[in-house]
Amino acid sequence: MRNGTRRMMLSWLRSLSIALLIAIIVRTFVFSSYVVQGESMLPTLQDGNLLIINKIGYKITDIRRFDVVVFHANQREDYVKRVIGLPGDTIAVKDNVLYVNEQPFEQPFFEHTEDIQSSQIFTDDFTLEGLTGERVVPEDALFVMGDNRMNSRDSRFFGFITTEEVVGKVNLRYWPMQQLDVHF
């Protein structure tokens, strides 16, 4: 092999190695892909949707109410849910109305608001204290719920999640393409 060809191949190999290293670093520390499994986030997310999770964004800025996050539910599974309660909050639902710190909160992420307005039960009544025994969301914890409230295993069942369990915030739904969405 000629010297010029060898140099060119080494240059290409070095470039590919650097690109692979950058891709591994970005995948490990910055962004990750997630597949929605189940119907607990309907109508916002559907079974099989593909998402991009921002792993560092929430470490730079605080997690906010109504952010959609992915977290470690146990050692084998990650869940995607919506943040409802932040540290220090009181949470309750009465007659399909969400109360945060005793103030009614609009839930603009619901596309089917006519269901919420009707006499149909969308979310069973509860208080945070009645579910967890705690009056407020503890420091470094979050209260999360699925958007499909009648068909979601969430903080009403397993309690608070810690901020350390959060993998990241959902930034993008990229599959199916006709449902491309960056407004999470």
TrEMBL record:
UniProt keyword list: Hydrolase, Protease
CDD domains on file: S26_SPase_I (cd06530)
Membrane topology field: Single-pass type II membrane protein
Entry keyword annotation includes Transferase: no
Localization per record: Cell membrane; Membrane
Single GO biological process annotation from the record: signal peptide processing
GO CC, any one term: plasma membrane
Predominant subcellular localization, coarse grouping: membrane
Domain Peptidase S26 as annotated: residue spans: 10-175
Enzyme Commission designation: 3.4.21.89
Annotated catalytic residues: S40, K81
Reactions catalysed according to its record: Cleavage of hydrophobic, N-terminal signal or leader sequences from secreted and periplasmic proteins
PROSITE patterns the UniProt entry points to: SPASE_I_1, SPASE_I_2, SPASE_I_3
Alphabetized GO MF terms: serine-type endopeptidase activity; signal peptidase activity
Superkingdom assignment: Bacteria
Family: Belongs to the peptidase S26 family.
NCBIfam families in alphabetical order: sigpep_I_bact
Protein's name in the database: Signal peptidase I
Organism per entry: Bacillus solimangrovi
